[in-house]
Amino acid sequence: MKYAIEQLDYQLKRYTELLRKSKLLPNPNAEWMRGTKEYEQKVADLSEALAVLTYCKKMRDGEKEIADLYKRMKIANQTGTDP
């Protein structure tokens, strides 16, 4: 469980850094680029990177919730209380 959370954190950091370093964001002032293949590819790449980031964040948050619940249940079993 801990390994999965670490992997998701790594992916999140990696894709965030990739977006920062790359020039995937199209220039909104470059109207002449709209409709070109280069512009469409940059938009598609950005959309894909953001989708991966969103997925990783949701998975990481879900993994942490499951890990927290597991810890509470383990403590509850040991102490005989409700989680």
Task: Please provide a written account of the structure.
This protein is mostly helical and 83 residues long. The chain has one domain (2-23, 32-79). 76% of the residues lie in helices and 0% in strands. The chain has helices spanning 2-21, 37-79. Helix 1 (2-21) runs antiparallel to helix 2 (37-79). The mean pLDDT is 72.
What's the total number of strands?
A: 0
Query: Which H/E pattern describes the elements?
Result: HH
What is the molecular shape?
rod-shaped
Work out the count of structural domains.
1
Give me the secondary-structure topology.
Blueprint: H1 2-21, H2 37-79
Helix pairs in contact: 1-2
Relevant terms:
mainly alpha, single chain, 83 residues
Please sum up the structure shown:
By secondary structure, the chain is mainly alpha-helical. Helices cover 76% and strands 0% of the residues.
